[in-house]
Write a structure and sequence with these properties.
Elements: H1 2-22, H2 24-29, H3 45-72, H4 79-119
GO molecular function, one term: dol-P-Man:Man(5)GlcNAc(2)-PP-Dol alpha-1,3-mannosyltransferase activity
Subcellular location: Endoplasmic reticulum membrane
EC number: 2.4.1.258
Amino acid sequence: MILALIGAATVQILLGLPFFVSHPKAYITGADNLGRVLNFKFVLEPIFVAKFAASLLIVHLGLLLASAHYKWCTHERGIVKFWRLIYASMKLNQQLYTTSKALKNDHIHRKRQLGDELRGHPRV
């Protein structure tokens, strides 16, 4: 998967490099300008700004969630169970870190006591 992401990033960089080299300021400032890609001129601007853009965003997010639930997280049986697994994993890691830290401190304390007893200076 990481190799695929690296490949996609490489293609994007190689395709955008000639434009970035020739006009870097215009390339960066116009990167989010979708006017030349998406043409919604058939919708009046007040309607587009008020309702259409928000509905496009909601539909897009809904499609992303549906894809995540039915395609990307099929092994975990859905996106909700996937996030539960992530949360449980984070909680377990925190517990293991806390336990190991407590064991480490206890181990250090016992070693100090043993060293003091061997030197004849017992700690109270």
